[in-house]
């Protein structure tokens, strides 16, 4: 049966806030968790991912988990270790103990951020491109993908790991024209990841069907995902303001953009 009750971790964050609006119309009942309280959501669970008792309680009775919580930018290794590496382990352990069968894990393009972006007629970046993390943050996402593989092989917990590009209401940089995932397409992809059968442990790239796409969306489409958006209507204005991506500029050379050279730092 399709999952109905779904734990959404990171529910107070940017994507979490978008998905709290966009997922219920698909028929999901969301249970919300974040370290920060969520205004207008008195039933949300306010807990840190290091709180194993709270996680145990949070996963009880859910059909699936969408795991978005964590540090979403670069940070000192010790912080990444606690929130993203140990935190994701704690989520998988809680799922194993409670018998939850499916997790959708928010991985990131930064797990492969040092991959050169395609130029001209270069082929799209395939799913099996070697991982090339661009930050401790990207390294934690690579760990999450391996953790997912281990929990599938060892414990039969299914995961769809989504290497998300940039999921924001609108693309705001020229790089994002290639990796933008509109919120509506994000919800479509999460729905596909929750409902596709026999996914085992699958990794997909997460974006809209952008004209300037850098990566292969076929594994996402194989889940039943049919993206409807394209960043192209934003292209003329962004390129007029910022210029084209120049191959000689290190911030333009790799998939991960400025994360490779001067990553944005987690503020807390
Ligand atoms: P965000 O930073 O806006 O939200 C993350 C949420 O996780 C925050 O509300 C924060 O309070 C919570 N959180 C952080 N550490 C926690 C902890 N130890 N315990 C409990 N909660 C904790 O990030 P955003 O943009 O919403 O991204 C969601 C997820 O998707 C993240 O895992 C991020 O790495 C991933 N992702 C997002 C992309 C995007 O374009 N938005 C791109 C690629 C990956
Ligand atoms: C990410 O992984 C970040 O969480 C998000 O804030 C964006 O910076 C995105 O990647 C990106 O590469 O644009």
From TrEMBL:
Keyword NAD included in the entry's annotation: yes
The UniProt record lists the keyword Cell inner membrane: no
Keywords: NAD, Oxidoreductase
Domain of life: Bacteria
InterPro entries hit by this protein: Epimerase_deHydtase (IPR001509), NAD(P)-bd_dom_sf (IPR036291)
Domain NAD-dependent epimerase/dehydratase: 6-166
Family from the record: Belongs to the NAD(P)-dependent epimerase/dehydratase family.
Stated name of the protein: NAD(P)-dependent oxidoreductase
Lineage, top ranks: Bacteria, Bacillati, Actinomycetota, Actinomycetes, Kitasatosporales
